[in-house]
């Protein structure tokens, strides 16, 4: 029995076929939408920011991106994971984590250069006081090592460190999942809860406090994505029940009313009950329960409402699919563009015409870049295909699947 990615997180139907499976483009579409949303939110002070998901519910694009990443890891690593080959998985995930570290260094030092150049060229020294840059500049001997050691993170440059830490956790998550999916969820959930209650997180070195996104908290959402994906790939099904649908829809509606209606006073009343903030609060660092439940409720609705799920299933040449397929490169480009946008808005005093124009232009540039990367990918695959001898039968099927795995693993 083979479960195709066409059904990897739908109703979990079993497909008895040996044909090569197609890529589930819904992941790429959702990842592309998350990347666009993150870019818009990273250029604060312009009108498009008011239209993004963070204004209509407890969670935002970061939660969606991490859950999608967990699902993708379940596809890329999970189906091939063997306890006996644990070390090989550890090497791959460590290599990926190092790639993310290098990408983070690129965006961090590009951000420094852009803000310093903006302050110097436009005589706006106030730029140096933005997004946690000043502690680095006032003490570069400690600041630069802190940046490189991830002990200090510049504002809007804090997703990749958390994501890299999640990559390092993959072998442990998969090992626990191989023993028992419930064990993996129980251990992961316990780490999330204890981290939130006792505020256990990587500490900053230049300033007081923690990493903005605590990997010990966010790993729970990541693990849920991995475990759920592997459950479906084994032929399992996501539960579809009217009561669960009603609960998910009700929670999403409550979240919408809460955020739009600014009902944060209710949260203060809940906090007075004496429960820990990770249960009653809305903190992003420790991924509080309301945020976690919101992204899971949204996901449940999207996967179980056929009209929504089918809407996301786009052809492989769809612009959003291409955009989401090259997620890391697009994220790096989007972060650098967002930092340019922040400098531009600062020197123009938050001009409400300049901001939207720049954001729209930045999205277009990212799509052009995505198409460039896609063209290179296709040329590379074509060149690789011409060097291979013709294959037939079962050998060809195995080769197609191996190519797909390697392609997914590079995302």
What's the arrangement of secondary structure elements?
Elements: H1 25-41, H2 61-76, H3 86-121, H4 134-138, H5 140-148, H6 159-179, H7 181-198, H8 215-233, H9 242-260, H10 264-271, H11 277-280, H12 289-304, H13 306-312, H14 319-325, H15 327-347, H16 354-386, H17 393-409
Features:
disordered N terminus, mainly alpha, 66% helix, 411 residues, disordered C terminus
Structural summary, described in words:
The chain has 17 helices and no strands. With 411 residues, it is mostly helical. It has one domain (5-409). α2 (61-76) crosses α8 (215-233) and α3 runs antiparallel to α6 (159-179). It is globular and about 60 Å long. The two termini are 26 Å apart. Mean pLDDT is 89; it is low at 1-21 and 391-411.
From the helix content, strand content and strand pairing, which structural class follows? mainly alpha
Please tell me the total number of domains: 1
Give the H and E element order.
Answer: HHHHHHHHHHHHHHHHH
Q: What's the total helix number?
A: 17
Q: Quick summary of this structure?
A:
The chain is an all-alpha fold and 411 residues long. It is 66% helix and 0% strand.
């Amino acid at each position: 029995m083979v479960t195709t990615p066409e059904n990897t997180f739908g109703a979990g139907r079993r497909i008895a076929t040996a044909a090569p499976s197609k890529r589930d483009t819904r992941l790429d579409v959702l990842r592309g939408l998350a990347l666009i949303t993150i870019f818009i939110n990273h250029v604060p002070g312009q009108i498009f920011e008011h239209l993004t998901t963070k204004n209509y519910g407890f969670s935002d694009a970061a939660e969606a991106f991490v859950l999608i990443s967990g699902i993708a890891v379940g596809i890329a690593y999970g189906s091939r994971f063997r306890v006996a080959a644990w070390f090989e998985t550890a090497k791959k995930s460590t290599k990926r984590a190092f790639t993310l570290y290098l990408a983070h260094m690129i965006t961090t030092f590009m951000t420094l250069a852009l803000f310093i150049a903006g302050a110097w060229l436009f005589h706006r020294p106030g730029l140096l006081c933005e997004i946690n840059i000043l502690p680095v500049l006032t003490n570069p001997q400690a600041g630069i090592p802190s940046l490189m050691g991830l002990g200090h993170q510049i504002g809007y440059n804090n997703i990749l460190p958390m994501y890299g830490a999640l990559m390092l956790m993959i072998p442990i998550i998969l090992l626990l999942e191989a023993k028992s999916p419930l064990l993996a969820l129980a251990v992961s959930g316990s780490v999330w809860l204890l981290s939130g209650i006792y505020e256990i997180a990587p500490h900053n070195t230049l300033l007081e406090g923690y990493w903005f996104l605590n990997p010990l908290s966010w790993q729970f959402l990541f693990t849920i994505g991995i475990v759920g994906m592997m459950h479906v790939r084994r032929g399992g099904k996501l539960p579809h029940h009217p009561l669960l649908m009603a609960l998910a829809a009700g929670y999403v509606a409550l979240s919408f009313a809460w955020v739009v209606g600014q009902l944060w006073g209710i949260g203060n009343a809940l906090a007075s009950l004496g429960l820990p903030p990770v249960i009653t609060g809305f903190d992003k660092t420790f991924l509080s329960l309301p945020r976690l439940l919101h992204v899971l409720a949204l996901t449940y609705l999207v996967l179980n409402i056929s009209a929504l799920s089918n809407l996301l299933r786009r052809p492989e040449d769809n612009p959003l699919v291409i955009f989401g397929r090259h997620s890391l490169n697009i994220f790096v480009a989007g972060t650098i563009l967002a930092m340019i946008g922040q400098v531009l808005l600062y020197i123009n005093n938050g001009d409400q015409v300049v901001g939207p124009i720049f954001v729209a232009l930045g999205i277009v540039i990212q799509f052009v870049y995505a198409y460039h990367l896609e063209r290179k990918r296709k040329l590379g695959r074509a060149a690789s295909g011409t060097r291979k001898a013709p294959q037939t039968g079962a050998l060809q099927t195995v080769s197609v699947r191996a190519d797909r795995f390697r392609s997914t693993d590079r995302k």
